[in-house]
Amino acid sequence: MPGANELSAVSATASKPNKFVTELNPKGIKPCCACPDTKSVRDECFLRHGGYDAEAAEEKCKNLVAAHRACMAKLGYQV
To answer: pLDDT for 29-47, tens place per residue?
Structure first.
């Protein structure tokens, strides 16, 4: 059985509103967890093409970056 301190911590956490909930993001997905599909392919592209030439990687991955930004924008995040 939880002690008094544990109960107050649980109730404080349960009553705290999710600051990420918006009209565009009703589930309140945090930016770090949003759009995992576009994020993973974008990251993989930079890992594959990054190396020492960041400009070349940006050029090769620009469509994936744009797709991830569009996905984030649909959730109300401006990146």
So the answer is: 999 999 999 999 999 999 9
In a domain, 67, yes or no: yes
The answer to whether 45 is a known ligand-binding residue is: no
Contact between residue 5 and residue 11 where contact means Cβ atoms under 8 Å apart: no
- Length of the chain measured in residues: 79
Residue ranges making up the domain that contains 63: 19-74
Instruction: Give the SS3 label for residue 77.
Output: coil
Ligand-binding site membership of 33 (annotated): yes
**CA torsion sign, 34 to 77 to 72 to 21?**
positive
Whether residue 7 is predicted with pLDDT greater than 90 in this model: the reply is no
